[in-house]
């Protein structure tokens, strides 16, 4: 069994070397040794060893599992048999421990421990799905002993880390990493046989988010990775905010978004002429990660962000067809109704709405936030459809909920299924 704790010379008497005990609940997926600073006194301590574990799918379905560590003497000169020990759990990036006041890191003081003690950490299902690191810290418990520099050993030192591999869990209630997103992009484009523009990323459109644009080099190159990171962080924030937290919902959303943005390339349709059914015309064509269209939809999103009620005014006073459905744009509602203008929904406001609309194509937050809002708050039936599964009919239902029709349905089905397969949903998801 590989050991996951730094094995190095310390100035302290008590230097624990904690051996992770074997278990049927996890497997070791990587281990390595790397050089550490050597000392002239104790040449034997040049190495540190690290290990990454992965919980097995059947383990994650349990209510809990227990990780056990046996404390051993880290080097032969450690004379004091006991000392203080604590450990810290760090959540997957962006996640929190809800039972601990929404902290992303929580520490547990284990008190005084001795060599050969067994430390047990109980992992609930929630922890198995959210913890990324377990870090151990120690300090000597004697104030009578001085280190080589004559200092009292009263500070905590990091003595080891367990990394829980991303493969341990599915994507329910945990964030995507940059590597996840890069893998998803390459997988989709490989399946598309999209070789010429394989490395492009939000590189097209007359309105765009400049901080995301990748027009040269590879997506996974160091110079471009920060752009993928910005995309990933904002995606994760949006998922958490709008309760898109299960594998099903995330997979559907990504498949649909990939089509809506024309393969993660556009945040703006860039049309000079739009179809006649686009309410508000060219100024209100598709924008954002969802490609929201129509002045009425922009108006409702504006209300959501600014806590105004202009959409209610438009809804109340606009003309309706025989079924009670609105049949005019916000622009024509303003032109045709003095009472609407008197309530502040006038020509000046409409010009301001045109300016606001560009936030969805040029501002990273609004590009994602508008997409999350539209797909959950505005079109509430979308999540219910996503939760049903991944048959062609269900993907068609999701498409209609988002798009209002079945435009690009074949591609949407492909993109959703390819993403589902890449994320190994069938084998790894614990919430099918």
Summarize the structure in words.
It is built from 16 helices and nine strands. It is of the alpha+beta class and 432 residues long. The strands form two sheets. It has a six-stranded mixed beta sheet. Mean pLDDT is 85; it is low at 1-12, 34-47 and 144-150.
Core attributes:
about 425 residues, alpha+beta, six-stranded mixed β-sheet, three-stranded antiparallel β-sheet, 9 strands, about 35% helix, disordered N terminus
Q: Which helices and strands appear, and what pairs or packs with what?
A:
Layout: E1 16-20, E2 26-35, E3 47-55, H1 57-60, E4 64-73, E5 82-91, E6 105-114, E7 118-124, H2 125-130, E8 131-140, E9 157-164, H3 178-192, H4 222-241, H5 247-260, H6 295-306, H7 310-317, H8 330-336, H9 338-342, H10 347-357, H11 359-362, H12 364-378, H13 381-386, H14 392-403, H15 409-422, H16 425-428
Parallel strand pairs: 3-9
Antiparallel strand pairs: 1-4, 2-3, 4-7, 5-6, 5-8, 8-9
Helix pairs in contact: 3-15, 4-12, 5-15, 6-10, 14-15
Helical residue percent band:
25-40%
What is the helix tally?
Answer: 16
Class of secondary structure makeup: alpha+beta
Strand content: 15-25%
Shape: elongated
